[in-house]
Fold this protein.
Amino acid sequence: MYNFNFHTASSLDDAVAKLGAAEDGTVMAGGQTLIPVLKQRLAKPSDVVDLSGIGELKGITANSDGVTIGAMTRHADVAKSSDVPAALRAVAEGIGDAQVRNRGTLGGSVANNDPAADYPAALLGLGATITTNQRDIAADDFFTGMFDTALTDGEIIKSVTFPNAIKAAYAKFPNPASRYALVGVFVAQTASGVRVAVTGASGCVHRATEMEKALSANWSAAALDGISIPSSGLNSDIHGSAEYRAHLVTVMAKRAVAAAG
Ligand SMILES: Cc1cc2nc3c(=O)[nH]c(=O)nc-3n(C[C@H](O)[C@H](O)[C@H](O)COP(=O)(O)OP(=O)(O)OC[C@H]3O[C@@H](n4cnc5c(N)ncnc54)[C@H](O)[C@@H]3O)c2cc1C
């Protein structure tokens, strides 16, 4: 680990100011990814600003349009909240293990945009909106590449708003060790149409447009029978080949549609 200056922020404004004053600063949520990254010397920030004391970044608010979840809300709190729709609760409940869910945050997961993370599929699948200290960003525009997002320097996620869906569900084939998604598929019937988001299969969460068309015409697992996902460009590693992941996309999509009903 390289040396850095450590700050605790008392409010969002305080965090923005401390980040702005730093030469090359970064924020920390639960530190679950950031700390290992620092320990492995993969990043060398001049300053780390801890967001964990900022009350305004925590909590869950539901209304008739959907639910807004603060960036610093931990996975365990989302998983047990009766204000959160079942499909989203299931996503949070399936992340890692109890320790991971008790430290990991929605904002940290979304900002990190790990290609195998679960929340990005839920955000893209439901057409969520990410609110930062500067603007609102549609999920469709947010996840720009592997570990890359539309966030700019000094931008902090405040919350994510998930619109209500008519039907929605998530199915994932978890890595047996980490529980990250070897492949995960979130399907939803929303007011603006059917959305299918795939995580784990490639370098970045993405929508499966051919599946969306098929499910728009016929919302059933059988509607996906004729669709085979090309393996070119998909991840291939010790956990599974690109061909295996391609196969899993269709299997997980069918399971998700069946679960959504
Ligand atoms: C053993 C293990 C198993 C895991 N399994 C899974 C799994 O099955 N599925 C899954 O989806 N995830 C999994 N995770 C990831 C975990 O759930 C966390 O979401 C992830 O590590 C981010 O952690 P964090 O919230 O503590 O953020 P941090 O590590 O503190 O931050 C991560 C990154 O996000 C940035 N950041 C944090 N908050 C904000 C904010 N509000 N605004 C802007 N930038 C911000 C930080 O600067 C940093 O770059 C696993 C992690 C571990 C360690």
Observations:
- Residues 26-34, 51, 71, 75, 95-96, 100, 103-105, 107-109, 111-112, 117-119, 151, 156-157, 178-180 surround flavin-adenine dinucleotide (CB under 6 Å).
- The chain has a mean pLDDT of 97.
